[in-house]
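hey can u check if this looks right to u? its 384 residues, i copy pasted from the old doc so theres a chance i mangled smth
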Amino acid sequence: MRFHFQLAWVLAVLIGTGCGHPADSVLNRPRLRVAPAVLDQYVGTYRLASGTHFPVVRDGDRLLGGTPPQELFAETTRKFSSNQLSGEFNFERSGPGSEVTLRRRLGKRDEPCPQINPNVVADPTRRVTVGNFKLRLLIAGTGGPTIVLEDGIGNGIEMQAELQAQFANVSTVVAYDHAGTGGSDPGPLPRDARRIAHELRLALQNADLPPPFLLIGGSIGADYVRIFAHEFPKETAGLILLDPTPDWERLIAWAEVHAPIRVEMYRQFARDSEAMMDRLMSVQEPGRTAEWAALETTRADAQRAVPLADIPIVQITGAGGRQTIPAIDDKIRFFDAWLQQYLPSAKHVLAPHSGHSVTTTDRQLIFEEVQRMLTMLRPPTGKP
């Protein structure tokens, strides 16, 4: 069964508390029409925290942003959101006649994005050849091992600019757009994680980035990096898994023993979350839709991607609401058992303020674990 597991937990909370269907809030959000003259004030190029350019253009009575341009839907005359891009986009002036600044909100965090002249300030992203197409990469920072960010299902360069900038202070960091998403060309089908792992490896080689790599995978991206590590063990220095999407059938089997009262609820959530994701993917970029279509193959490959080589592994699991939401406590206990069985040397860390989006609510915790792993992986000071 294809599905995004964590959305089951979201459904458990939102539907169970009468908040309606999550897909409706995205696909049926109100569209406020804003005068073209107002939209023209927002047109320009903005700089994300990572240095990546975020161009904003007007197309008739629509405002578009990102690479490639995606429609930004107006919620007010200054606040916008998107079906393809995460977060809220707020355009602000500090005073009359001052330059417009973009403030992007992810979760409860605001990222100020100043307007720049793209002819003066260079975009740090580059396109790297992979076979007969090109992937767009952001490469920042210096030193090693190189940190590679992988979110899975096409969440690429523009997703976590602040985290990218923070990692660039301690090592080389790479973020990228999967084939068929963002600034990358379409790639061959099917778009399963094993194919994507091989494309990523070739892109890193062609960008002259030497292994081994410290790979960080969030959500279903945790499966992607485990598959990379299984395919290329000598090129993987360590893994950090951010609130992964666990194997649904194994979760159901676990719940039958440890939480039988909620087994039928989880089965229903699995069906609901698959239907929700099918609806959400209907408005996504082709590469992301293709990854969703190949998710069954990806999950089967992830089941086979154990055991892994003897490398340091940290899993950070969102634990926000554990005391009041039984599904969150089930998730944590399930992962305790799953890690003990399949990745027994892994360190399991709980993110106390997070649901699924650990990178927006417990970013400092992630950074601290990355620093610890870098210290572990690097040779002692004064030695080669």
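Confidence is low (pLDDT under 50) at residues 1-22.
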